[in-house]
């Protein structure tokens, strides 16, 4: 009887562990293919930018994506970067 109870408890704990592991697995998280390593110091033409992504690893940066799919990174503390983010957000709001 004790062996039967121990087996049931073991299966119960394995089930909980499996559910917890699957819920927090890397397969459910979004993985970025691109990372900002070099940051552009040049101001970009805001009209050519279609979207952006915020990144904190390996550096705190904004990755802009142009209409042609080119990815350019800028530092979050630069004025032109904040202006570009606001411009893209306003364009997105108008579409909705």
TrEMBL record:
SMART domains given in the database record: SCY
Keyword presence, Signal: yes
Gene Ontology terms: cellular component: extracellular space
An example Gene Ontology biological process: immune response
Record GO terms (molecular function): chemokine activity
Residues of the signal peptide: 1-24
Record keywords, A-Z: Cytokine, Signal
Domain Chemokine interleukin-8-like: 33-88
InterPro entries attached to this UniProt entry: Chemokine_IL8-like_dom (IPR001811), Chemokine_XCL1/XCL2 (IPR008105), Interleukin_8-like_sf (IPR036048)
Family under the similarity heading: Belongs to the intercrine gamma family.
Name the UniProt record assigns to this protein: Chemokine interleukin-8-like domain-containing protein
């Amino acid at each position: 009887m004790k062996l039967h109870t121990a087996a049931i408890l073991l299966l119960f704990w394995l089930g909980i562990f499996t559910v917890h592991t699957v819920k927090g697995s890397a397969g459910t998280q979004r993985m970025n293919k691109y990372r900002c390593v070099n940051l552009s110091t040049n101001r970009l033409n805001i009209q050519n930018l279609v979207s952006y992504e915020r990144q904190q690893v390996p550096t705190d940066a904004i990755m802009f994506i142009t209409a042609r799919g080119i990815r350019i990174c800028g530092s979050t503390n630069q004025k032109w970067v904040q202006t570009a983010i606001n411009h893209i957000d306003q364009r997105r709001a108008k579409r909705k």
